């Protein structure tokens, strides 16, 4: 594995470990695509640092287990923001 990829995997893994961010949030913060971040955290990190990969895997599993709740909450917030204006009658 190329040294630059190894370093990126470690950096992303440490970011998740320290902050508990989701893959999407890590991708946005780091500037890499979600696909790259996901592959680095789920596949490549195991080859670089197994203990860190295990911790990151647990964090990602937690995010996966609550994603249906977050999705519902996002929809709820979206509908709260939409204010329906009643039609004015002349």
From TrEMBL:
Keyword Transcription regulation appears in the UniProt entry: yes
Coiled-coil stretches: none
Keywords: DNA-binding, Transcription, Transcription regulation
PROSITE patterns recorded: HTH_DEOR_1
GO molecular function, one term: DNA binding
Domain of life: Bacteria
Protein name: Stage III sporulation protein D
């Amino acid at each position: 594995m190329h040294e630059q990829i190894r370093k990126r995997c470690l950096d992303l893994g440490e970011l998740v470990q320290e902050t508990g961010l989701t893959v999407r949030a890590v991708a946005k913060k780091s500037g890499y695509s979600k696909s790259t971040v996901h592959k680095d955290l789920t596949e490549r990190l195991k080859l670089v640092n197994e203990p860190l990969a295990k911790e990151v895997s647990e964090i990602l599993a937690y995010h996966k287990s609550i994603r249906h709740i977050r999705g519902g909450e996002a929809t709820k917030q979206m509908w709260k923001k939409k204010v329906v204006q009643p039609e004015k009658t002349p």
